[in-house]
Amino acid sequence: MKIFSKTIAIISALLFTVACNEGIDPISKVDPGTDETAPQITVNNPKEGMEVKSETDTANLLIQFIVSDDIEIGSVTVSVDGVQIAAYNEFIDYRRYLGEIDYLVTEGEHMLTIAATDLEGKSSTLDVHFFKASAFQAYEPVYPNETLYMPFDGDYRDYFSGTNANVIGTPGFAGDKVFGDNAYAGASDAYLLLPSDDLETEEFSAVMWIKPNAVPDRAGILVVGPEDIANPGAENLRTSGFRFFREGSATEQRFKLNVGTGDGESWNDGGVVNPSDGEW
User: How far apart are CA 227 and CA 18, in angstroms?
Assistant: First the structure.
């Protein structure tokens, strides 16, 4: 009886194994190819020669970098002024690693060093020089009645008041700019919040440089208005304030303005730009 039971169990196990494999292609090893190049390193922040500004003698710097390899990354180290601050040897994507490190920098000149080695022992090193400016000094107005100035030089500060914006999500920096060091990039579900007390006047003007991107093909730009408390999930009460934004396609973006009228809302369509031009 025991022999019969064992036989039934073995047959059941075999049938289960066959059933699990039905309809599934067998896994086969693929030759990754020849490891020809050393790892490639890109530093998005800080940029070479960047000035880090803050209202204190120290500042929080978000170090952002990318390491990629044609076959597989072996290790990555991050150092500032010759002192190692981070090291990595395990990677979910073994050919590409996106690194972010919050680092406290002090006043003066500094050198960031990213070093990477692949599994064949080929290595690369990239140095980026930057400096921390002396304690923050308030922005001197250029135009009459200025109340807000945000250059986005690698931070989210109003340089008129010295106030840091409340950062929602991870908007990041673009690695590009018209003036300064590093422009605001923006990202899905990410934005900055600032109090609007100084803007609650009968009229005001806003001037900015914008470089529309094709993906995502829509984004908010400037919003002033209260939350829609009566409708949880709605971020803004559209019968009050205004919402300046862009939307369209990968080749045609239109700037639009939605203005609350108290009882309703008004829609206004502006000019069209082609984001594929890559122009500010």
Answer: 58
Strand ranges, E, within 136-226: 166-168, 191-193, 218-224
Query: How is residue 189 written in tokens?
Result: 């579900």
- Residue 40 dihedral angles phi and psi, to the nearest 5°: -100, 135
- Phi/psi of residue 31, each to 5°? -70, 120
CB neighbour list of residue 270: distance below 8 Å, 6 or more residues apart: 254, 255, 256, 257
Identify whether the C-beta of residue 172 lies closer than 8 Å to the C-beta of residue 154.
Answer: no
Q: Can you read off the two tokens belonging to residue 183?
A: 């422009």
| Cβ neighbours around 30 below 10 Å, total | 6
Q: How far apart are CA 238 and CA 228, in angstroms?
A: 8
Helix (H) or strand (E) run with residue 251 in it: none
Instruction: Lowest mean pLDDT of 16-20, 116-120, 241-245, name the range.
Output: 16-20
pLDDT digits (tens, 9 = 90+) for 180-215: 667 888 888 888 998 888 777 888 888 889 988 888
pLDDT > 70 in the chain, percent? 83
Strand pairing category for 123-135 and 166-168: unpaired
DSSP secondary structure letter of residue 186: -
Query: Are the C-beta atoms of residues 223 and 244 closer than 8 Å to each other?
Result: yes
64 within 8 A of 86, measured Cβ to Cβ: no
Contact 68, 76 (CB under 8 A): no
Q: Quick one: which H or E segment has residue 75? A: strand 73-80
**167 beta partners:** 192
Find out whether 220 and 241 touch, Cβ atoms under 8 Å. no
